[in-house]
Amino acid sequence: MKKLTGAQIVIESLIAEGVDVIFGYPGGAILPTYDALLDSKIRHVLVRHEQGATHMAEGYARVSGRPGVVIVTSGPGATNAVTGIADAYMDSTPMVVISGQVGTSLIGNDAFQEVDFVGITRPCTKHNYLVKDVRDVARIVKEAFYIAGTGRPGPVVIDMPKDVQQAEHPFSYPNKVDLRGFKPTIRGNPRQIERAVEAIEQSEKPLLYVGGGVQWSGAAAELTALARGLGIPVTETLMGLGSVPASDSLCLGMLGMHGSYGTNTAVCNTDCLIAVGARFDDRVTGRIADFAPNARSIIHVDIDPSSISKNVKVDVPIVGDIKAVLTDMLDAVRARESIGKRKAVWAKWHQQILEWKRERPLYENGNHKERDSVSPLHVIEEMHRLTKGDCIIATDVGQHQMWIAQLFPFERPRSLLTSGGLGTMGYGLPAGIGAKFAAPDRKVIVVTGDGSIQMNIQELGTAVQYGVDVKVVILNNYFLGMVRQWQERFYQERYSYSAMSVPNFVKLADAYGAKGFRIEKSKELAATMKEAFATPGPVLIDIVIPKEEAVMPMIPPGGSMSEMLFA
503: closest CA among 518, 493, 492? Predict the structure, then answer.
């Protein structure tokens, strides 16, 4: 059998896994693998910074459902990737990162561009490997993809010493993986599912609380069928938006720190909370002692057993894949004729929630189009009008992220890409680029702020080089907007280092070879955005908004859902 180098085995293994695109940046310790990559059919996207590569891989994974692949060199190349790896870990995003490493004989000697990448990433990966023998390369790649995409998804690191990349061995790719210590539970316990259905049937005010796990499991259809079949309203986390079509009256939108009055009031009054693929994050719960205070039963469905009762004690835990559990739950519901009698009661509960939503809408509609300055609400309305809602939106982190989450009606899953757990500024542009590689036929819009865009704006060069048709909308208030909002409300208007000077974004876009637009007045918005969205290729739109614009309502730090601020 013909022998291949370790580097060639890596590439052949990636091909065997169906990898079609890699995001990366070459350097000395990974050059053997880059040399092998040149002869392969895999498309490589040369990024401008390794953090950009990891976020592109995240965007690709979030849209495609397959692990994103990153390749970087040792030392600073590896450490530059850590933020994206940690981001993927927090948001359960499958990713395989292949890093170069100094030769095995030099490890531990403080060699040029040496870092203990396995040690650095141990707290923020599902698993990581230091490959010491070329005979293990194919097996490790197979295991890495299996671990990244099975159970609760997450990132896996493969650290490849240079001499292992250069050593030779016959190539044979394993057909299956058998890891004794990694056996995720797929099917939920039937008795627990029956208990959950019983608790729902006995409730007066049931509420589905769904997170990103629904989308990773591909269970949006099953969730929607369950909600519609029973008439149970649904509230979504930031990562769960799009699990149920926003146009469905059962879909209440986002809950938590910047959730609506109606949604959060529903959580405060529910007597049966059904958490599906959500982890009771502090941005959702607020003060945990006062979260869902009237819930007699809390049901939690999750594939990760460590998430069960970690933050909020639950009454009916169900460990398993969301799609499999919801399928079994639907069967259990259909087998119970008595449960249909509860729908009239639940319909009254649904109407009560809708009344709360009407009582305090998120933002008063009306005069924002007539004012001279540009309202973020108006921008989002124009985006929706121009795309008819059929687009992928990647955001950065801050006020713009919350406005999108509150106001853009996502009709399908895998349409909102955002950094939820880690809250990473600089995520949006590279994630949007990665999304476009995963779904070239879908419109991709990046919504960002003047602070966030400057974190990874160099990736505009990547978009130009590869002709990525991505529209970047900057909501520019010359401040770190969310920081300013907190300083205004909780720090006596002491604006400590949150004001920001920004470049001329139109000239900067031109310097990169992209097209730039600037909007300063409300009357300019519709025509300019229409022109910008019709312009092919990468486009950057700098939209000036008032610095006083705030994301409301909000739960104050340390507060509960019943203590929301509205102005």
Answer: 518
Q: Give the separation between CA 448 and CA 359, rounded to whole angstroms.
A: 31
Residues 346 and 319 in one domain: yes
| Chain centroid, CA 142 distance in Å | 25
Measured on CA atoms in the order 542, 548, 550, 554, is the torsion positive or negative?
A: positive
- Tens-place pLDDT, residues 306-341: 999 999 999 999 999 999 999 999 999 999 989 988
DSSP code of residue 375: P
Catalytic residue numbers read 50, 112-113, 162, 482
Query: What is the model's pTM?
Result: 0.96
| Same domain assignment for residues 289 and 426 | no
364 band by pLDDT with thresholds 50, 70 and 90: low
Residues in the chain: 567
Neighbours of 83 (CB within 10 A): 21
DSSP state of 543: E
Report strand pairing: 515-519 vs 539-544.
parallel
CA dist 538 and 276 (Å) reads 37
Same domain, 107 and 227: no
Under a CB-based contact definition with an 8 Å cutoff, are residues 234 and 301 in contact? no
Q: For residues 221 and 195, is the Cβ–Cβ distance under 8 A?
A: no
Distance in angstroms (rounded) separating the CA atoms of residues 134 and 368: 63
On the question of a cis peptide bond just before residue 430, with omega within 30 degrees of 0, the verdict is no
Tokens 């990547």 map to which residue? 462
Q: Read off the amino acid at residue 138.
A: A
Number of H helices, E strands in the chain: 22, 20
Structural domain harbouring 350: 190-359
Q: Are 23 and 67 in contact (CB under 8 A)?
A: no
